[in-house]
Amino acid sequence: MEAISDRGIKRRKFKDKLFRYLVSGLTYCCLAIVFVILFYIFKKGIGSLNWAIFSQLPKPVGETGGGVVNAIVGTLMLVSVASIIAIPFGVSVGIYLADNRGRKMAGRVSLAVDMLQGVPSIVLGIIIYLWVVKPMGGFSALSGSIVLSIMMLPPVIKNTEETLVLIPNTIKEASLALGASYFRTTMKILLPTGIGGIFGGCILGIARVAGEAAPLLFTAFGNPYMNYNILKPVNSLPLVLFNYASSPYDDWHKIAWGATFILVSMVLILNIIVKYFENRWKVQF
Amino acid sequence: MKNWRILENKLFVRWLSFSAIITIILLSAFFLTLTISSWPAIKANGIQFLWGKTWDPVKEHFGMLPFLIGTLLTSFLALIISAPFSVAAAIFLGEYHSKGTIPNIFRNIIDLLAAIPSVVYGFWGLFTVAPLIRPLEVKLHLPSSGLGIFTASIVLAIMLIPYSVSLVRQVISMTPIQLKEAAYALGGTQTEVIWKVVLPYNISGISAGFLLSLGRALSETMAVTILIGNAAELPHNIFSASNTMASVIANEFTEAVSDVYSASLIEIGLLLFIVTMIINLIGRSIIKNVSLI
After folding, report:
1. Using a CB-CB distance cutoff of 8 angstroms, which residues of chain A are in contact with residue B221?
2. Which domain holds residue B23?
3. Per the CB 3.0–4.6 Å rule, which of A200, B2, B61, B260 could disulfide with B56?
């Protein structure tokens, strides 16, 4: 009798160990995948990096060399204009949500923000095509920035709300008791106190949209030349990548790996900034 | 001076409410715009649009069944491939090692997967996953381009891992400690506690996490567009070249010349919008209920 139950326990312990190894193994697989992908991108990317990629315009098929300087400029332009549109608006919505928690309207707005995050980016591209590109009569950097600004909104709003909610009411009440208006209290007390978290949300939003290509297909469209005009089509790194990746030319693939390297390093650095400062910037009392 | 301050304050409060309401208006406007712009197609194609097998822009004959099948196959395949990995990683991070530096580092590393842009996954898959699939296709005597539903699903599965892991881990870590302790007190091993308490208790939350991941899979565009092979016919098997609803829009929208053609693509966009909104609504409400308990 004793021997049987002993065997049962041994089997259960064995099963326990087996499952533990299985779970750990699969988890290490996930980690390995990350390293395999990053290693491949960096190996290929560094191999094809040269000064021309940062300084020259794309060359037509058949000519070797060339770079993606117009796409780098285009990406910076799209992302900065998108930030100018999205950040003030997103922060306002975040303030509203933080100050009206528990109200019906705030619940609906919060739901709308969640839904906004779920809208497929390609569908946003269609919508902005219909709203901006068609009435204006052509593809433009502005329309691309508008799409990206909509995609930036959810992280900016969420982070602003979550940061402001953490600030103790006593601080706010102290300011109000001194006779400062709600506006002054928000501007001079709440926002400066929570600036870290809000900034983190903005960086997160930028990192999220910097690599987006799908909605730019019908808005910013791409452009083989240098363009600084916001009303003209503009190139961006993800778009170059898409166009070059689906081409059969080795030379273009090489440039595409360079562009991938630039794009991925940019996005990873932004993410690391957010991660690194996340704890430092968190409002603590 | 005083009046100005009162006015300033009033304007500020108005602006805040206005900006908040704009987000709701924005979402409704998306729906309206898509419906209005796809109206010519809805009228011309009728309800057969949903199960029509041919997509022929030249003859203006539009049926989206090939793309619907392509989308469902790709998304579910990706979800099935990624599920064991994401549940394992979620258990590892939420149950085995929920605190400490190393799991924190692991979590951040897995989160890096979410940071890599979709188009980069597509490009990477083209050079690494597609060559791996090609010999397999040769062995099965299929057209061996290496591109198709299966290749797209593998890459898509990798892209889904960080989302599923973070959602499932959050759900798992909210299991009441008393339940687990009760099971341990009865002599359960950790594996038994996970299988008989943690997973059954969280089954609805975990399903919601996978539902939200499915929503992401459905709307994923660039990686799939590069890897799926772009074909507008019904897929014969999981190695066939196909198109998803999102990828057909990406491939054809700028080339759509006739009104009905572009309206049909917008109609696909409308359906995609409605489906992802419903999935998000259900998934989020389940997760919210779980976290309220």
Report:
1. 120-122, 214
2. 2-48
3. B61
Please, are residues A93 and B19 in contact by the beta-carbon 8 Å criterion?
yes
The C-alpha atoms of residue B86 and residue B111 are separated, in whole angstroms, by: 12
B133-183 confidence digits (pLDDT tens): 999 988 888 887 889 999 999 999 999 999 999 999 999 988 899 999 999
Q: Which residue is closest to B29 within chain A, CA to CA?
A: A127
Q: Is residue B53 part of a domain?
A: no
ipTM: 0.92
Query: Measured between alpha carbons, how far is A245 from B288 in angstroms, rounded to an integer?
Result: 41
B12/A118 touch (CB, cutoff 8 Å), yes or no:
no
Tokens 């709440």 correspond to A190
Residues B103 and B245 in one domain: yes
Q: What is the pTM of this model?
A: 0.93
A20:B190 CB<8 A: yes
Beta carbons of A118 and B276 less than 8 Å apart? yes
The yes or no reply on domain A53-281 and CATH 1.50.10.20 is no
CATH code of residue B170 = 1.10.3720.10
Residue from the list B19, B115, B246 with its beta carbon closest to the beta carbon of A92: B19
d(CA A181, CA A36): 55
Q: In chain A, where are the structural domains located?
A: 2-47, 53-281
* CB-CB neighbors (< 8 A) of A263 in chain B: 117, 120
Query: pLDDT tens for residues B79-138?
Result: 999 999 999 999 999 888 878 888 888 988 998 999 999 999 999 999 999 999 999 988
User: Cβ–Cβ of A246/B117 closer than 8 Å?
Assistant: no
